[in-house]
């Protein structure tokens, strides 16, 4: 098989995969508003995605806030403007770092487990058994996870904001000896509520996209354990790239169309 034939086959396969994913996405939107909403499953997944991830999200964002404050204070001291570091840390955390880091942590911790769990059900033919009994796997397995992710991603992002800002405050005032009153005053004066809610909107979008991608790969798993590992890897990689692309698109929309 020649080089151009391989490229052609790859493009055809890519097009078919994109078409299949778009159909799957449309099915998700179709099933989400239809009751019953299976609150028990939503609560179970909310605990698994949200409550069990608080510690690792807090540690990740606390250290990120510390590193960010350390770098910013060190740079701003050149211009004798270190009191502005608090506002810079808060805006960077709320607008970008908190939602993105939270999404990355949850992709690694929960996204992979979603794909592996659903994929193992597919490999062991449990999904086929559900379809035989006229139970929609998408409605039973995917929709509760979507609701749970849409709730928990912004909630964890809000926690990440607070923890990250405190990490920056701790380093700036206790280690770098920045005046705490001036640090907090400039942060409260310059940080706007729009900085916070834009990050929360991003978190909602990230939660939806990550869950759809991971569940899609889980339901398309085939080829036994090898296929399950391949799908899990693909889900994590594609979710991570999608978060970054979606972050850029949303940031562009907020800046150019919403004036934020």
- Give Rg in angstroms: 21 Å
List the helices and strands in order.
HHHHHHHHH
Average of per-residue pLDDT values: 93
Secondary structure tally: strands: 0
User: Can you summarize the main beta sheet?
Assistant: none
Summing up helix and strand content along with how strands pair, one would put the structural category as mainly alpha
- Kindly report how far apart the N and C termini lie: 52 Å
Q: What general outline do the C-alpha atoms trace?
A: elongated
Helical amount among residues, as a percent range? over 70%
The gist of it:
With 260 residues, the protein is an all-alpha fold. 84% of the residues lie in helices and 0% in strands. It has helices at 3-31, 39-49, 54-76, 85-123, 126-132, 137-175, 180-190, 193-219, 224-256.
Q: What does this protein look like?
A:
This protein has nine helices and no strands. The protein is an all-alpha fold and 260 residues long. It has one domain. Helix 3 (54-76) runs parallel beside helix 6 (137-175) and helix 6 crosses helix 8 (193-219). The termini are far apart.
């Amino acid at each position: 098989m020649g080089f151009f034939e391989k490229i052609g086959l790859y493009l055809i396969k890519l097009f078919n995969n994109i078409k299949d994913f778009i159909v799957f996405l449309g099915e998700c939107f179709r099933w989400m508003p239809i009751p019953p909403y299976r609150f028990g499953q939503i609560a179970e997944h909310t605990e698994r995605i949200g409550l069990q991830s608080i510690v690792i999200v807090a540690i990740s964002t606390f250290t990120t806030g510390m590193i960010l404050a350390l770098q910013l204070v060190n740079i701003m001291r050149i211009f004798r403007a270190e009191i502005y570091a608090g506002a810079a840390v808060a805006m960077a955390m709320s607008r970008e770092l908190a939602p993105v880091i939270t999404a990355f942590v949850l992709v690694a911790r929960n996204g992979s487990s979603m794909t592996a769990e659903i994929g193992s059900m597919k490999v062991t033919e449990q999904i086929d058994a559900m379809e035989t009994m006229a139970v929609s796997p998408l409605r039973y397995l995917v929709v509760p996870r979507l609701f749970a992710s849409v709730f928990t991603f912004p909630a964890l992002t809000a926690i990440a904001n607070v923890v990250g800002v405190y990490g920056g405050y701790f380093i700036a005032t206790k280690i770098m000896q920045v005046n705490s009153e001036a640090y907090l005053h400039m942060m409260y004066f310059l940080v706007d509520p729009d900085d916070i809610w834009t990050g929360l909107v991003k978190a909602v979008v990230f939660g939806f996209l990550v869950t759809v991608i991971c569940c899609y790969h889980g339901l398309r798993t085939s080829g036994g354990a090898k296929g399950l590992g391949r799908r899990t890897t693909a889900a994590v990689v594609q979710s991570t790239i999608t978060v970054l692309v979606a972050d850029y698109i949303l940031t562009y929309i907020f800046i150019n169309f919403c004036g934020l």
